[in-house]
Write a structure and sequence with these properties.
Helix content is about 30%, strand content about 25%. The protein has about 450 residues and is α+β, with helices and mostly antiparallel strands. The strands form five sheets. Strands 2-1-19-18-17 form a five-stranded antiparallel sheet, sandwiched between helices.
């Protein structure tokens, strides 16, 4: 009892924080609190709404684990109301998508192989994409200049390979070779590569130039031998075209015939399920979301909340309602919360350091605390924290956040004794990029002071 009281007094005293070193008073918000009691160790502008950048993904992850469960899986189905006669599907095939964020070409190819094993050899009708699972995917306004970048790809019911095709490089008889994965029937690959003499590859993009028009992907440059096996992505086509062309290429590669055309339509009420495939579990998706800060997947996770609990007919609004309802049930005031897409890819999203910290503390105390913590980057070891805060390797797990005017860190530090500290630190400033070292130092200072308070407690 005496130790607990002493620790509470130390923690309470520490909330009278000064401006962290290197910052102006209005540039940073910090909240730090132990998991094992209800005190607050440190706070600076903790109730001010701030743009959290990608640390907002932690709120989305917490809500998904609580509402959907760690083993939640997205389902993809192929349906038809047409008869199957002697290997011929005498009508349309409906691809019912529900937003599997990890659906890729190998998994789709396996689904199509299973479809063939179930007797479908030729599709006489059309391939029709059933996209009813999402009525509204939300927005990420303010990123038009990055429209060709992978991190801005929006979620979709029929997202495949994150809508990214890969150029994979090798050598054939000493000559540079390149393949498009998946093959897309609309495009001809024009290989103008020459053998390069560089000693090593590094980033293959420094050796090659890629130009794309409506029908051709042209690859030129000088490819060193060290780039054998290297790859870089190319962002082409809209989502529906990418999915349907990938289907056609994979289907024909397996020996299938058809479809005659492609389009978008809802599967008839009486259509039977020819094949159903489940995704990887939610925890695997959240690892991609948090360790590698995948925006598209994070937005897909948020939309799953609305998709599974439809109320208003607006998928995004229903998802946000699920998050707010969960916060209310936990007694966490959401006055500072503004959600645009749940990924932090937003100029509008806001949350206070205190609210995000209380969410992390609730998570650590709940049944899925270990699952959430395991998705966070390890300081100095992996993910987006691989080259940062290495002096705390083995004890610190934090999600990073980066936008033009934002740098953020949020996660957990664990003492050798097992006691845990939640830390949220957010910089909103035109100087954000140059303040990253100061942010790391501020987090390190909080940890060292808290560790000292543990040693002082009897």
């Amino acid at each position: 009892m005496k130790r607990t009281l002493t620790l509470l007094l130390l923690c309470a005293a520490s909330t009278q924080a000064a401006v962290p070193a290197g910052f102006r008073a209005n540039e940073v918000a910090i909240w730090a609190a132990p998991v094992e009691n209800d005190s607050v160790f440190d706070a600076w502008r903790a109730d001010t709404p701030v743009n959290p950048a990608s640390t907002m993904k932690l709120l989305t992850s917490w809500a998904a684990l609580n509402r959907l469960g760690p083993n939640y899986r997205w389902k993809t189905e192929f349906k038809s109301d047409a008869p199957l006669e002697n290997g011929v599907l005498r009508g349309d095939l409906y691809w019912v998508g529900r937003g599997d964020p990890r659906l890729d070409s190998p998994r789709l190819a396996e689904m199509l192989r299973q479809l063939r094993l179930r007797g479908v050899q030729r599709i006489e009708g059309s391939l029709l994409l059933d996209k009813r699972a999402y009525s509204n995917i939300g927005s990420a306004d303010g990123f038009a200049g990055d429209a060709d970048r992978v991190f801005t790809v929006p979620p979709d019911t029929h997202l495949l390979n994150l809508k990214v095709a890969w150029l994979r490089y090798g050598f054939d008889g000493g000559k540079p070779a390149v393949q498009l994965d998946p093959p897309l029937p609309q495009f001809t690959l024009d290989n103008q590569l020459q053998a390069g003499s560089a000693a090593s590859c590094g980033d293959v993009r420094q050796h090659v130039k890629v130009a794309v028009d409506e029908r051709t992907i042209r690859v030129s440059g000088k490819l060193p031998q060290g780039c054998d096996g290297a790859a870089n992505y190319v962002n082409v086509l809209d989502i529906n075209s990418f999915a349907s062309q990938s289907f056609r290429a994979l289907w024909r590669g397996l020996g299938g015939e058809g479809p005659a055309a492609v389009g978008v339509a809802a599967a008839p009420a009486g259509a039977r399920t020819l094949l159903q495939q489940e995704s990887d579990p939610l925890t695997d998706v959240l690892t991609d979301v948090n360790k590698h800060s995948n925006n598209t997947m994070a937005r897909s996770v948020l939309l799953a909340l609305g998709m599974e609990q439809p109320q208003s007919g607006n998928t995004l609004d229903d998802a946000v309602a699920q998050v707010r309802g969960l916060l209310q049930s936990k007694g966490l005031a959401a006055d500072t919360l503004v959600l645009e897409n749940g990924a932090g890819l937003s100029r509008r999203e806001r949350i206070s350091a205190r609210l995000l910290g209380e969410v992390l503390r609730d998570a650590a105390r709940g049944p899925y605390g270990p699952e959430l913590a395991a998705t966070l980057p390890l300081a100095g070891e992996d993910g987006t924290l691989r080259k940062r805060l290495g002096s705390f390797a083995g004890s610190l797990r934090m999600k990073t956040g980066t936008l033009d005017d934002t740098r953020a860190l949020a996660g957990y530090w664990q003492a050798p004794s097992g006691q845990r500290l939640v830390i949220v630190a957010v910089v909103n400033s035109p100087r954000a990029s140059e303040l990253t070292p100061a942010l790391d130092a501020a987090v390190g200072d909080v940890i060292r002071r808290y560790q000292a308070s543990l040693l002082l407690a009897p």
